[in-house]
């Protein structure tokens, strides 16, 4: 007993010394904000008792070795094949040691943060406090900011300099919620549906068209663990159950509800979320559908998702922004660079992949230029803008195609024809090309990451493209040795959705990503019904499959991604139309039986 009391006294003494030390320790500048972001106005100092929440992302360890292990989980020849890990097992590897976190916790406690106000996720901390405490912690001035176009939207953020004790700098990677700002919503290209029964185009896309084109099975999902999640950002999440019901009835789809809703739900339905829900439920009918929204951007979502005990096995994200302009979306604090932000998010994606989740992401709708250069301006070395998260090494990037030939007629005489095809001219063409403006409302994105090196699993196919003699942009405009995307594609033009009681036409890789996620849900379902594990991170396996069976991917006609959503420029990437990987449509679109049979055959 005496020994135990002595240890407790020594521990308390150490904590007292540690806490007292912060009071006199030299401070280190962590970030500075001296300009309000675009569309935000600074108002009065924030009330001292106003709620103030922020996250501290702690410096991780063993990051590269962990990422290598995750890659091995998707290698059928590795002893780590499909040996996915639990949250705690992953954090045992990658989170800082508990004693490393203690100085950070002591600093928080010294300034009045109670233990009940801290959620400790081992490699990140979520702090719920007030403006007064936050001002003391960071020795900063916090103001109220209002959005210029949405007056009811306001946030409290630090303005000027923010600092932390010098000794804590090596322990802190990123802080969110301090002087960063919410990202701005964006809309996918949508508009009135084409004229009913008009033969002037290849026709509209509905679920039966996708099933026919890609040879998808008629079976429904049956395994209780089968699941697909649709992810929305910036509070941009809403759909109507009545719209979903009508869509399923009119397209001949099996009634499949949204089973789980996570995060803020917008009662005003959005084209993005409506599209995701309607096509995921139609392709992977009877599966457990998740609808997951977050207020923030990629880092906030990935941290929240990883730490959730129950998550879907497959997710689709139809969102993205130019990789080296991430801080234009989420307005990172000045202590965080675009490269810092991307690196941390990539580590979070690797953790999610380590749990066995398949992550699909749209490759973008503004071609090789990217959304930060949507006007096709010649901006020198940053003319081409790869999209993040699509160019992450731990997600499967999905590009978009479009049908090229006019459909001679719809199969309206078939008993299987859904009611919608009696009103609209549903496509029957089978020739796919690169989805590009002005024939479509968007241009499929693709290219090479600015920051992430090329994974070994795609090097053979990508290097074959680079050495094929195809015309390439100037070498100063892209990093040919970095992660290349997309990996695969699906149709992304002229989809019909039912939104707020009317039919609309939609274009985008926002169409193709949820479709591919739903297709993955079908494959996981068959594997699990046979007593096998779900696949998890699938991109490396697509390239292995191509080497074994090129017929598993449909060849896409020649084209390029030199346009955006509004213009065409001089630079971009070519698809020669000969098959094989290219930066417009990846390996091609899926021939489902070959894709499923390969993935099902794996142990």
Task: Kindly describe this structure.
The structure is a single chain. The protein has 603 residues and is α+β, with helices and mostly antiparallel strands. The chain is built from 15 helices and 27 strands. The strands form eight sheets. Strands 10, 11, 12, 13, 15, 17, 18 and 21 form an eight-stranded mixed β-sheet that branches. A four-stranded antiparallel β-sheet has the order 1-7-6-2, covered by helices on one side. α8 links the parallel β11 (258-262) and β12. The N and C termini lie far apart (55 Å).
Q: What share of the residues does DSSP label as strand, in percent?
A: 15-25%
Overall geometry: globular
Low-confidence segments, given as residue ranges, are: 1-20, 410-415
What is the terminal separation in angstroms? 55 Å
């Amino acid at each position: 007993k005496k020994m135990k009391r002595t240890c407790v006294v020594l521990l308390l003494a150490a904590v007292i010394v540690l806490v007292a030390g912060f009071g006199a320790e030299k401070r280190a500048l962590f970030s500075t904000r001296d300009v309000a972001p675009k569309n935000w106005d600074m108002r009065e100092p924030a009330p001292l008792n106003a709620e103030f929440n922020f996250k501290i992302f702690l410096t991780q360890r063993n990051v590269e070795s962990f990422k290598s292990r995750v890659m091995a989980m998707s290698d059928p020849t590795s002893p780590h094949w499909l040996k996915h890990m639990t949250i705690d097992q992953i954090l045992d590897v990658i989170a800082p040691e508990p004693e490393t976190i203690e100085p950070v916790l002591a600093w928080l406690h010294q300034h009045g943060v109670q233990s009940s106000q801290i959620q400790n996720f081992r490699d990140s901390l979520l702090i719920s406090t007030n403006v007064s405490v936050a001002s003391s912690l960071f020795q900063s001035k916090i103001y109220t900011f209002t959005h210029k176009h949405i007056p009811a939207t306001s946030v409290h953020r630090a303005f000027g300099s923010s600092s932390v004790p010098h000794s804590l700098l090596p322990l802190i990677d990123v802080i969110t919620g301090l002087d960063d700002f919410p990202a701005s919503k964006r809309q996918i290209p949508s508009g009135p549906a084409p004229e009913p029964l008009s033969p002037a185009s290849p026709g509209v896309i509905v679920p039966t068209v996708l099933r026919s084109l890609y040879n998808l099975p008629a079976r429904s999902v049956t395994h209780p663990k089968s699941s697909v999640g649709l992810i929305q950002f910036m509070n941009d999440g809403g759909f109507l159950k009545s719209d979903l019901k009508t869509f399923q009835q009119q397209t001949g789809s099996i009634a499949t509800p949204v089973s789980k809703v996570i995060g803020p739900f917008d009662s005003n339905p959005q084209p993005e979320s409506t599209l995701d829900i309607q096509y995921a439920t139609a392709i992977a009918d009877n599966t457990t559908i998740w609808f997951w929204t977050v207020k923030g951007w990629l880092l906030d979502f990935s941290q929240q998702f990883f730490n959730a005990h129950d998550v879907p096995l497959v997710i689709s994200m139809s969102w993205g922004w130019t990789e080296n302009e991430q801080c234009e979306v989420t307005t990172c604090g000045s202590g965080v660079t675009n490269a810092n932000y991307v690196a941390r998010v990539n580590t979070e994606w690797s953790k999610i992949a380590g749990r066995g989740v398949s992550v699909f992401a749209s490759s973008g709708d503004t071609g090789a230029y990217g959304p930060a250069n949507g006007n096709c301006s010649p901006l020198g070395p940053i003319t081409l803008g790869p999209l993040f998260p699509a160019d992450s090494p731990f997600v499967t990037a999905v590009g978009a195609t479009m049908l090229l030939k006019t459909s001679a007629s719809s199969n309206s005489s078939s008993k299987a024809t859904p009611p919608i095809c009696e009103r609209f001219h549903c496509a029957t063409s089978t020739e796919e090309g690169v989805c590009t403006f002005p024939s479509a409302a968007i241009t499929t994105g693709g290219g090479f990451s600015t920051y992430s090196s090329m994974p070994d699993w795609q090097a053979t196919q990508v290097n074959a493209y680079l050495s094929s003699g195809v015309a390439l942009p100037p070498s100063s405009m892209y990093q040919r040795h970095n992660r290349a995307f997309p990996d695969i594609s699906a149709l992304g033009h002229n989809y019909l959705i039912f939104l707020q009681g009317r039919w609309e036409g939609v274009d985008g890789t926002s169409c193709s990503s949820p479709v591919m996620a739903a297709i993955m849900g079908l494959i996981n379902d068959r594997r699990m019904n046979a007593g096998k594990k779900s696949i998890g991170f699938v991109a490396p396996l697509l390239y292995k499959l191509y080497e074994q069976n090129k017929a598993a991917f449909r060849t896409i006609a020649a084209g390029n991604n030199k346009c955006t959503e509004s213009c065409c420029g001089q630079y971009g990437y070519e698809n020669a139309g000969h098959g094989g990987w290219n930066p417009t449509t990846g390996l091609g679109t899926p021939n489902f039986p070959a894709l499923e049979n390969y993935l099902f055959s794996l142990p």
